[in-house]
Design a protein that fits this description.
Layout (H helix, E strand, L loop, with lengths): L13 H14 L3 E4 L8 E6 L2 E10 L3 E4 L1 E2 L4 E2 L7 E7 L7 E8 H18 L9 E4 L6 H4 L12 E4 H7 L6 H11 L7 H16 L15
Parallel strand pairs: 3-7
Antiparallel strand pairs: 1-2, 2-3, 4-9, 5-6, 7-8, 8-10
């Protein structure tokens, strides 16, 4: 597909990605019902052929997904409650044209997040309970971030939608509740020490810059 012109380019919203995930599940024959009382978890019940399973809808505009660890990485918030993970992602970080929707078995996702958590702790990174830990959908060749990455190499998307079409179907701004849910998926941890801040910042800089963690050196200067 040709690149979108500046006039045709769209703002990719959380609402747009969630609607793409729901549309793809419905196209697979599932009836969707949101489970109440789950706060901002975005957990849904999928029913088809008399069988029901629970899914977590996750969205990403940079092809990384997050779940918050609990109890020192022995549990995962939301991820431990579901059978599948329904991910809506742009097809490219730069100049995306489409939204791809994948349905992953939760067992595979948990295995990958467990492995990634262990690798980061071994490297000396700070991974804080109850705040999102990111894992790349694409294969990441950097040693620390490679663990758990690349899940899309093993699954085909269940749907692909042009961004322009999705934009036309989800016109309008996100509500306050939707904005809160979007923020909850990508919230940065509330860190309490300078060491924690530096550790977390190094990891995020390495992810964004696409470099080895060891290549990121941060200097902190405090002026009184």
């Amino acid at each position: 597909m040709a690149n979108l012109s500046s006039e045709q380019n769209v703002t990719i919203t959380w609402k747009m990605l969630v609607e793409a995930a729901k549309k793809a599940a419905a196209a697979q024959g599932y009836a969707l019902e949101r489970l109440p009382g789950r706060g901002l978890s975005n957990i849904w019940q999928l029913t088809k052929g008399g069988k029901t399973k629970v899914t977590s809808i996750r969205t990403t505009r940079d092809r990384w997904v997050a779940f918050p660890p609990l109890a020192g990485g022995t549990k995962w918030k939301t991820l431990d409650e579901v059978d599948t993970v329904l991910v809506a992602t742009v097809d490219a970080r730069e100049n995306p044209q489409n939204v791809q929707v994948y349905m992953f078995p939760a067992d595979d996702v948990r295995k990958r997040f467990n492995g990634s958590y262990a690798a980061r702790i071994k490297e000396g990174l700070k991974v804080q309970d109850n705040f999102g830990m990111w894992v790349s959908l694409d294969r990441d060749e950097r040693p620390v971030f490679s663990v758990g990455s690349g899940i899309i190499e093993h699954y085909k998307p269940i749907a692909i939608y042009p961004l322009a079409d999705l934009a036309a179907g989800t016109a309008g701004e996100e509500s306050e509740a939707e904005a809160e849910e979007a923020a909850a998926e990508t919230a940065a941890p509330t860190l309490t020490t300078i060491s924690d801040v530096i550790s977390w910042a190094r990891e995020r800089v390495a992810q964004i810059a696409g470099v080895q963690l060891s290549a990121v050196k941060l200097d902190l200067k405090i002026e009184w």
